């Protein structure tokens, strides 16, 4: 895994080498093993920082050029099926000088152009510059595991693995995007192609763009989860067998590495099953990592005992890390910088320390269980809503109105009755009524970005075949997974130079899950019945049926220790933006919902980190 960036002048201005160094330094945590840049000419420069995983030899360093120097690539990610693709290209006469996936990807692009994307099995963000046509080609993987940002104006095109790389070039101004801020309050991330900076966009999952030499952008979606249909010919036995096969295949692909691969282990079903599959057919020791808190807090018992139990049963070595409030205060001032994008989930905090401990143990690649809950219905509130929907089927009202109830239960019931969105995604910060009340009177919450999920809901539920269960997975594949869960994993884990691989989000596995009929996938609306059925072949019932609890951080307890420490940044933010009604903001501060206080504090710190020098 790596950091990539590039700077292209559209008016042939000479790029200042100091700017290049600033951008490169901002990404060196992503690629601590090697960093370099390539001035294709005075006004075009590509930048790469490398975390060496496959073909550790210097010959695989980037930027990497084709033999004729026409094409130059910078690539972040892993192509797991690169050996198969290499053999295919060799039959067409291509020669290779490295043993890595970067050269295969570049040669594959030369042969197939954008159609190479259909052949890739992996997680990736890459950019290829064509020195003959002056065209820039940017692509992001289907699920959105790896990020890619870009900014384009009349003078410059700048892209990077992180927003900060573009901002630190000083060629692009910071301009707060208020619609993105409000969308963040609802989804705890920013949907679609937007970011908190109005002058920076992100490439969406399953999308590529071309930028010609004049800066004209053309965009295309090459993979869309909404296009997959239910296969009613499937039966219970076929589904279980195919799921078993795909899981094995996905885990094996994610063991492809020239360095040791570890595991983030909670001790629950998902990570324990991955650990067992990783251990199969090998005598090599497997290192697993777990983080816990020195403080206890309401509603969370910790996972350390379960992780210890699972590690002994599976036969893997567990490394433990404890953190506390003082640890958090150590990184608080830099957390918005580490987080990079607007991501509201506090789990990024323990992930940061977990990755730090992982790297200290000599591991720089891990497999993680992200995505399993979304594919197999592991959340209790999902299943409760599915049961409730049996009494009132969801439908599209095409009404732009939203429920006026700020209470979440009343808000949900109102939306069910009037055909509004009952499930805007698995992560919910403030509902629309709360946001409408919180913001100042002249700010509208009816923008397409804030209502992003509602517009998709209306389009989806026009179909007579629409299912709420499928919608839940689809909307999270569109928003929560790529822009929240996977971004917190990428940004906070890569901060320590550790690569996370997500077997449950292999696109072949995702595609198969999307075709399974509801009655086979969740016959009784209980958590993960299909995955549990497969897991029984590998791990014990004690692990499979342990009580589920989400991975959390005690932000409420931490805020209580020093409330002014958290609130001051929100006050400063509001005094400069005037976004929130001060009287409503005071009510939030005096209330008992500490999660909402964290979301506001996190937004404020992200904004202030870009405006206060």
How many whole angstroms does the radius of gyration measure?
Answer: 24 Å
- CATH class category name of the largest domain: Alpha Beta
Structural class: alpha+beta
- The residue fraction in helices comes out at 40-55%
User: What is the CATH architecture descriptor of the largest domain?
Assistant: 4-Layer Sandwich
Report the count of strand segments: 17
Largest sheet: spatial strand order: 2-3-1-9-8-10
Mean pLDDT: 93
Q: Stretches where pLDDT falls below 50 for ≥5 residues? A: none
Overall morphology: globular
CATH fold label of the largest domain: Glutamine Phosphoribosylpyrophosphate, subunit 1, domain 1
Our measurement of the CA-to-CA distance between the termini, rounded to an integer number of angstroms, reads 31 Å
Compile the SSE list and pairings.
Blueprint: E1 2-9, H1 17-26, E2 34-41, E3 44-50, E4 64-65, E5 71-79, H2 82-90, H3 101-112, E6 122-130, E7 136-140, E8 149-152, E9 156-160, H4 163-167, H5 178-187, E10 201-202, E11 207-211, E12 217-221, H6 236-253, E13 262-264, H7 269-279, E14 287-293, H8 304-314, E15 317-323, H9 325-339, H10 348-360, E16 365-367, H11 372-376, H12 380-389, H13 408-417, H14 432-438, H15 452-460, H16 468-494, E17 499-501, H17 507-515, H18 518-521, H19 529-535, H20 541-544, H21 555-561, H22 563-577, H23 582-590, H24 594-611
Parallel strand pairs: 13-14, 13-16, 14-15, 16-17
Antiparallel strand pairs: 1-3, 1-9, 2-3, 4-5, 5-6, 6-7, 7-11, 8-9, 8-10, 11-12
Helix pairs in contact: 2-3, 6-17, 6-19, 7-8, 9-24, 10-16, 21-22, 21-24, 22-24
